[in-house]
Design a protein that fits this description.
single chain; 3 domains; nine-stranded antiparallel sheet; four-stranded mixed sheet; 17 helices; flat; SKP1/BTB/POZ_sf; BTB/POZ_dom; BTB domain-containing protein
């Protein structure tokens, strides 16, 4: 049996930090009027940090009177005090720290290679100071955007995609870093009207182009050429298919000189000949662990009874998928029915164990507690729908080998049966606790090669509404 006494160890090392009379390192941090000298022990710093282990190597080390001298002018005393306490005790108290200080701590912990601290401080800022992040999202993004595998960066980008208005209406938008703007324009889940995005891009481009006044009437050919250079990377990312003909000729066409000729020709073919351009409409957001956003466009097309790979335009509905149930642990009929009841358009996604395959189903009448007006048999729990379908993907981003089976016998589209969580076609595709069962019946088009049973690894259910 091994006994551990971490609390005593932390306490004793804390005393060593506070009364460092045998220190061998002097660290000067900060600059100008905000500086402070810290005393520490090289053996502890080396043991706890690969950064200090390298910094105190023979190639880097500076000694004075047998004392290691080290300067960190880019770190404030307040932040370094937290870092030093973390090194000695494994503790950091963030409860009284401002959002700015916590953000600085993230930057410093990344520089000093404290991976554990780097991850946990990000979690704290996201969970405890989300309002501060939202109010200072441009500052936060500019600070962490270059970091690899940064959950704070991902959180900011997802927040902006969900609600871009605060960013684009802020005074800081015209100074937004070009790489951040490029990253946002590439996303399919950016929930904004494309004509508004175009207007914002033009304003950003004008601000980013030196000596270009805001009065377009005074621009000459050289001015347009400079703006074209500024926006060269960005214009191909605008989804012109989402801009109406009226808005195009009122707001886009005046800037024809900055649009590459091949893109402008694509747009003209779209408006005049209904030939769709390269980039499809943005699909909106789905918060799914099971599928990638690119599959949302396929599912949306299936809901509209279109070909899977059809390009969606501004005239097509943009669907919102609201997650109402998710589980990758205890999965049972009762919980599913409690969370997913009611006659409402619903989508279920299922990842099965030991496979990359994704299975799912869409029901325009829901899965359970269905309106009795849709019941087709007084004795049996069958409900009618002409819109239901089941489907499969080979993996979470499959756009080539997916299968769809639409309902054939409308009167038996859904069964609301007490032994199953959901039941498409009375046994074609149904869930019973932690398993799904698939069979080839004539209620739906066939997508299964044979009768099969899978254990559910993860399940998600969404309410589907028009935005």
């Amino acid at each position: 049996m091994t006994l551990t006494f971490h609390s005593n160890l932390s306490r004793d090392l804390s005393l060593l930090l506070n009364v460092a009379d045998d220190y061998d390192v002097i660290i000067q941090v900060g600059e100008n009027q905000n500086t402070k000298e810290f005393h520490a022990h090289s053996i502890i710093l080396r043991a706890r940090s690969s950064y200090f282990k390298n910094a105190f190597s023979n190639n880097w080390i500076i000694k004075k009177d047998n004392m290691i001298m080290f300067n960190k002018p880019n770190v404030t005393p307040n932040i370094f005090e937290m870092i030093l306490r973390y090194i000695y005790t494994g503790e950091v108290d963030l409860t009284e720290q401002s959002g700015e200080n916590i953000l600085d701590l993230i930057v410093v912990s990344d520089e000093l290679l404290f991976e554990e601290l780097y991850e946990h401080v990000q979690d704290y800022l996201i969970k405890k100071q989300s309002n501060w992040i939202y109010e200072n999202i441009t500052l936060v993004l500019h600070t962490v955007f270059k970091f690899e595998n940064c959950k704070l960066k991902a959180y900011c980008l997802e927040s902006i995609c969900e609600d871009p208005q605060p960013l684009i209406s802020s005074g800081t938008f015209p100074s937004l870093d070009k790489d951040i703007l490029l990253s946002l324009l590439k996303r399919d889940d950016l929930e904004i009207k494309e004509i508004i995005l175009w207007d914002c891009l033009i304003k950003w481009g004008i601000e980013q182009t030196p000596d270009l006044g805001s009065n377009k009437e005074e621009w000459n050919e050289e001015n347009y050429e400079e703006l074209k250079k500024t926006l060269n990377q960005f214009i191909p990312l605008i989804r012109f298919v989402g801009i109406s003909r009226t808005d195009f000729f009122d707001k886009v066409n005046p800037y024809k000189a900055i649009i590459p000729s091949h893109i402008y020709e694509e747009i003209e073919k779209f408006y005049n000949e209904n030939i769709l351009p390269t980039l499809p409409l943005r699909t909106g957001k789905i918060k799914s662990n099971i599928i990638k956003p690119k599959l949302v466009n396929i599912i949306s097309n299936w809901i509209d009874k279109r070909d899977a790979m059809s390009t969606r335009t501004e005239n097509d509905p943009l669907y919102k998928f609201e997650l109402i149930y998710h589980s990758n642990r205890v999965i049972d009929n009762k919980t599913f029915k409690e969370k997913c009841k009611g006659t409402i358009k619903s989508l279920v996604l299922i990842k099965v164990r030991n496979s990359d395959q994704i299975f799912g189903g869409y029901s325009s009448i829901g899965f359970c507690s269905i309106d009795d007006n849709l019941r087709t048999n007084e004795l049996l729990p069958f409900y009618q729908s002409s819109d239901n379908f089941i489907f499969s993907f080979e993996n979470n981003e499959d756009t080539q080998n997916m299968k769809i089976g639409r309902v054939l016998r409308y009167s038996d589209a859904m069964a609301d049966y007490n032994r199953t969580a959901f039941n498409f076609g009375w046994g074609v595709f149904y869930m019973e606790d932690n398993k799904i069962f698939m069979n080839n019946h004539n209620t739906y088009e066939t997508i299964f090669d044979k009768s099969t049973t899978y254990i559910i690894d993860e399940i998600e259910t969404f309410i589907v509404t028009n935005q």
